[in-house]
Amino acid sequence: LHLRLVAIHVVKRRLLSLISLRSTGKDFDEDEAMNIAATKKQKSPKSSVVYHQLDSSVIEEVKDLIEDIRDMYDEAENYLFKSHATWVEGTVTFWKHRATSEAYVLCPIAKNDANDDMTGVNRSELQDKEAIRCFEKLVKAEKPSNPDSWMDYIRYVSSSHVHSFGGDNIFSQLHPDGFAAVPSVIRKTRGLYNRALSSVRKAGQSENSIDSKRAEAGLNNDMFERNYDNSLLDLCREFLCFERAFGSEESLSRAQTLVRSKMAQWTAPPPQMITNGNEQSDDTHGKRKAVEEVPSNDAMEEDGDDEMPSQSRSKKTKVQTNLKQPKKTEGVHKVRIGKLEYPAHPYTIHVSNLSKETQDMDLVDVFRKEVGEIVHVKILREKKFGRGGHHSHGESKCVGLVQFEECISVEKALLMDGTLDVGGKLIKIQRSHLPAVGIVPQGMHRVKPKGEGKSSKRNQMKKGSKLQVDTSEERMDCDNGGDLKSSKISGASNVETPSSISLSVLSFKPRNMKRKPILDTKK
Question: Membrane-spanning residues where (predicted)?
């Protein structure tokens, strides 16, 4: 496709050069001054160009070149349709190339052909329709449409040479005359602006389209090298300028409402990032300043804030709320696992490419010396089932987690990626979304001290409850026996205080049992 378009461009240069040299003696790529002589009596400057009428042979060659160019465009269109029917970038590039050539080169030359058999009305009408047909193909080739395509279309329709739709001031019911053509073009331009804003997507929306491949597949087309939001911003700005120049208060108000709906999710350009950075020193003042500076950068809301009703002010407040949303994720690192992203843990790193023999304390010794204080280190291992139980360590997965006491230690460790040697191997260091240990109280060491675990506390509670039961039984026996002497005869120990009670097996005393009466079977 690129070779075909280059070949067409070469033939188009030949056409322009032929007409320019035969009519003025100067080539088309040279400059020419504006001739502002008011009357014939005034002498034209020496640098003015003298025009000559073209010969019939030159006119025939011009006709042949125009037919050749259009045949080449038709052949390129057929090639594109048969070989790459779903190639959106190529289709947009082709129709932009052809629409520009038809609008500014082929159609103006063909309309001035004096030897055409058609009448002036039909000749002008057909040539304009050919250019408009190409622009319609251009804006419909991509969904959602590109704002630059619409701006090229609107510039052609709003230019002065299209004012003569229908011919040389000949009135008809379908085409306006010279007087009615001026407001007609204004209405048509406004209609194209409304169509453009209804067919493009909103600014700031993420779209799974071809935006990422445009710079490579655009074939030197400037339209594909521009950011979509910037193109949409230019389209909205030109629409508002058009309404201020040729519209009324009502049409300007409708245009501002339509533009605000499209730019509601638009984020400010890089200068706004400086404002966001100053918010750390003064949050209240910084947030107000960031919100107030965004409308001043947007030319769409100029001169319209005082004229808009309360409904427009509510929409403006909604825009300010949306602009605050990106601040929530500023400075938060992400860890990608498969197709999902998780926030990185601020104190933990993920270490890989370890040897099988590397132990937890090996990582502790290395990172404590090179980076900083460590809270916990854990090497991930395979689970081992069956004989040996869960107490035996499984085989190492050669990866581990290291949790530091300070966030700055994580940044220092990341700088050592691929340079730190552990167990004779250079390890790889990345951010981790998982901590090495779940909950770490402040000041707790790497290993829990003995006696403060969950099982130790549970055993201590059981001993305390058993101590309570034994002392209560001893007191009941003393009350029922009358004195402590009878209790000594039965083999019990003297109980004075709960602390003097022994917890050995010999201190166990069964409860009193009554002997059952013996039944006389002889009776």
Answer: none
